[in-house]
Amino acid sequence: LAENREAWAPMLVVFNRLERAGRCVDELRELGLRAVTVSGFMDAAQREAAKGSLRNRSLDAVCVVNTFIEGTSIDELRTLVFADRRHSRVGIKQAIMRVSRLHESKKEANVVLPVGLHECLWDDFDVKALARSVLADDR
What distance in Å separates the CA atoms of residue 131 and residue 99, rounded to the nearest whole number? Predict the structure, then answer.
């Protein structure tokens, strides 16, 4: 993430557990990235502040747990990182939609997958099929 900061920020880094997200934020900060943890347990004002900071580029990365995956629009997002395995193909697709939105500040979106995504994506063919299904959605 640090090596690709210039091209990838602002980034959404998706975790399943709050403690792992917190450790990631600590490591990113040590590497010079501006990062925070946001979870579904935080109040709406804190979550909105983080979204605003991503939009105005005062944050490079937000490590999220149980939030920002569906029903959230942050068109400026350039990169989505699945830091933990995901267990739902629908959840993966919804998360990918967060970065696939058009915005004048980006030409492309990046999706970083862990080596073992989970049983919902068996092989390279499934990853390609998922990408095609995301791109086929109405925009």
Answer: 13
Rounded-to-integer distance, Cα 80 and Cα 107, Å? 15
> H or E segment at 128?
helix 124-136
pLDDT in tens, 58-88: 999 999 998 766 557 788 888 989 888 777 7
Which residues lie below 8 Å from residue 66, measured CB to CB, with a gap of 6+?
39, 40, 41
- Residues 89, 100: Cα–Cα separation, whole Å: 16
pTM as predicted: 0.79
Q: Report the alpha-carbon distance of residue 2 to residue 79 in Å, rounded.
A: 13
Question: Which is it for the CA torsion 24, 30, 31, 32, positive or negative?
Answer: positive
DSSP 17-72: -HHHHHHHHHHHHHTT--EEEEETTS-HHHHHHHHHHHHTTS-SEEEEESSSSSS-
d(CA 52, CA 107): 21
Q: Could you give the 3-state DSSP secondary structure of residue 79?
A: strand
